[in-house]
């Protein structure tokens, strides 16, 4: 057994920062070195989720770094506690704790409540998720989160799992995608193991299913999930679901499942506003130990408004360019990195615009009366400008989807969501429409009030 000091670990972390910057996290500094035992470098990672994440996601990177620093073909093992006898015999003195979660999707240490940025677009979902995590089966059951891609649904699901596990060490938690649930179901049918399948999924204390909308139009899977849901719910166990749409808007979903899902709390997550996007960027940067100036965060947040994953991708690009060019992250680098990517939702100095200004601009541009945009008429000559009006209102105000629908003739939030998605899709494919939108937004800028 060779005695190894902290210098080796510092060298490993330095190698990772240079060659795998996107994988590095601020908590890597909490890793402790134990020793090289039986030709393997043992590293102490006390927290279960962090250790599992490193073992499954970062093992190869750590092996490469260890070999580069020590000049030895040195395997790496992440362990949960230091053995009482530092001179162990081979065969398992180190404890690899099983934390009680069965996660076919890897839980990420990044996705905790501490790192979730709360804003007006996700406040209800966050508060409800925290309540569910602290009191599974008693707060809101079932709990259903819905929203577009990359808006934080998965973050909240994983935060629920991690908090529930920490607060209730004996609790059995399952975090799984809907597709994985269906694949498990089909495998059980083919192998004649339905009894094992049902015993597994109907005895969890907390069942968390991501992307439940994927079960739509899957008759046998819906049937099985219906009975699984009923068993868990009737025994007071927690069910948490996420989807890209509320239950009633999921196509080909059986009415009985819609009814079950609607019986709990339905919480939407919408696109983050400008201030929330800035806060998200700063939070993501802090997790990676990246120094990002305020003007850079403001510039990136103003240019990219689609979702959180796009923001994180922009941060990764910035970090990579800074390392390649051996320079600090500044506004010039951000402009070079982002370039023409995205379209500005708000200027870097945040400003707002009234709904009336948008109605006036759109009706004037298309030669309509404001009353036409608010009417129930569905002619394309009116429907498209109306959708554009909703789209611009969503981009340039802080109103929720429901509030926007109220301004546009009392329409519901699903109509507004459909309008936004329609214009997003058409704008990408139709250069003429894109130019019209640019002109409309330019005209709005002139009436923005700081």
Percent helix, as a range, is 40-55%
CATH top level of the largest domain is: Alpha Beta
Superfamily at the CATH H level of the largest domain? Answer: P-loop containing nucleotide triphosphate hydrolases
Main sheet: which strands, in order across?
4-6-7-8-5-9
CATH topology (fold) name of the largest domain = Rossmann fold
Query: Based on the structure, what is the oligomeric state of the protein chains?
Result: single chain
Q: Span between N and C termini?
A: 67 Å
Q: Which secondary-structure class do the elements indicate?
A: alpha/beta
How many E strands?
9
How many domains? 4
Approximate strand percentage: 5-15%
Biggest sheet, open or closed, and with what strands and sense? 6 strands, parallel
Low-confidence stretches: 84-101, 342-351
User: From the coordinates shown, what is the CATH architecture of the largest domain?
Assistant: 3-Layer(aba) Sandwich
What is the string of SSEs from the N terminus onward? HEEHEEHEHEHHEHEHEHHHHHHHHHH
Count helical runs: 18
Q: Per the principal axes of the C-alpha atoms, what is the gross shape? A: flat
Mean pLDDT: 84
* Radius of gyration computed on alpha carbons: 25 Å
